[in-house]
Amino acid sequence: MSQALKSFTLEEVAKHNKEGDVWIVIDSKVYNISKFANLHPGGTGVLLTESIAGKDATQAFFGLHRHEVLLRPQYARLQIGTVAGEEPVVKSLATDEASRVPYAEPSWLSAGYFSPYYKDSHRRFQRSMRKFAMEVVYPDALRCEDNGKRISQSVLEQLCAMNIPAMRLGPGKHLQGRSLLGGVISSEEFDHFHELIVNFELSRFGTRAYVDALLAGEVIGLPPVLNYGSPELRAKVVPEVLDGKKFICLAISEAFAGSDVAGLQTNAVREGDEWVITGTKKWITNGMFADYFTVGCRSKDGYVVVLVPRSDDVSTKAIKTAYSSTAGTAYVTFEKARVPVANTLGKVGQGLQVILSNFNHERWMIVCTSLSAQRMVVEECLKWVNQRIVFGKPLSSQAVVRSKLASMIARVESGQAWLESITHQMNNMAYDEQSDKWPARSALEARSALLCRFITRTGRETAEDATQIFGGFHRTSPYDAILGGQEDVLGDLGVRQAIKKMPKGARL
How far apart are CA 167 and CA 174, in angstroms? Predict the structure, then answer.
């Protein structure tokens, strides 16, 4: 600020109420908006009304704006002082502090609530993760969401230094010897609830494309390498990706085969010690900047999954989407790309199993990120109905608005309970039990599919309710309904698995 902050009385502020000389008060702070008035999107007339110029405009401001607006440098510099004897009502939370708005946080973070799932290590980990996400990731998320560029290199380096990409793959041997979040917990302590916290904290900014840009390709593209690659392949690729030196993506979906994974047409022909791969993939998250592609193919001996490095025979083209290009969504073409047979993931003919075994964790991750965003929507709606004045009363005085909020809260709380139940099962099942063995795989696969369907649908319902409350519109909430399998397909999968488990003697 060019001026030192001074203390003013309301009477002194009131003298500055005409064109070219306008002061206002917002939450005990005095702002000189004389020069800004001509730049105001609503025109100078809005700021020169009798209820604004020279007055306490707190109610009018918060009826139109977020508090964060006042923190932006271009507006913060307009503050010239404070009102004598007054204290601000709105105070920013510390970067590691939980919100005090009801239902803005999972119940285990609320004072006085208990949970069978979360321990002291989870609470300690959450505070550190929240601080890192707010201070390091959030500013980059806002920039990249607007400019469409991929995650900043400096942020990537800090993420990798904290081993956050490694933690997003869940607990396992890949974490051994790594310092997690600066040593807040050990790799032996880390479980799927810690991983849930990572996903929640990275997804609560309302920057939907950046959530995918934040190495979602690694989360879904690296597990097949980790679980089915040869020791030599794992030793080379896994450290490169987890340390941020290389990017990876999962290349399964095609124009010919989305939810119909068995309909893949990309072809792999073996010639000596090489696969020759020809075909196309579509809607590939992070494909634009990937160095490795985990590719589902057909071969004469059945389905096969191959890790394909980027080369002159692999080209990517950006797909224009309704959300930011920061996600790097790509159309990928393989023109007789030659890849060593040693890059095969799993056995030839069992590629479909490799692909399907990867879906449980992907859908779980989708649920985590979607549910976190829905909580953010609930929080913002509760704040808005409390500060927005209509018909002379807060918006919360309208019964129809309270009804929408009740539905939003019910959805997010029920989704949280279901998610935590499944996460507990993941903590108590080995990877092969989750993905290969019957009946554990059947039970978890069905529940994960149904949960993903439930969360993606509630996400759209909540977005639509929030649209009515805010009087705006939404673009990206339907995205989650097609990730990891179209929601109707997932619903059918879950019910088919349940029918297979029906006892033979069950009758009405």
Answer: 9
Distance CA 207, CA 260 (A): 29
Q: Provide the whole-model pTM.
A: 0.87
Can you tell me the distance from the alpha carbon of 178 to that of 162, in angstroms, rounded to the nearest whole number? 9
Alpha-carbon distance 189 to 251, whole Å?
A: 32
CA–CA gap between residue 108 and residue 120 (Å, rounded): 11
Q: Which residues pair with 30 in a beta bridge?
A: 25, 81
Q: Does some domain include residue 225?
A: no
Whether the Cβ atoms of residue 408 and residue 377 lie closer than 8 Å to each other: yes
In the three-class reduction of DSSP (H, G, I as helix; E, B as strand; rest coil), residue 250 is classed as strand
Distance CA 216, CA 325 (A): 14
Per-residue pLDDT tens over the stretch 267-280: 999 999 999 999 99
Q: Show which of 83, 98, 121 is a domain's final residue.
A: 83
Supply the pLDDT for residue 495. Answer: 84
Residues near 480 by beta carbon (within 8 Å), at least 6 away in sequence: 366, 369, 370, 455, 456, 459
Residue 472 has pLDDT above 80, yes or no: no
Could you list the residue range(s) of the whole structural domain that residue 26 is in?
6-83
Mean pLDDT of 348-353: 95
Do 345 and 370 sit in the same domain of this protein? no
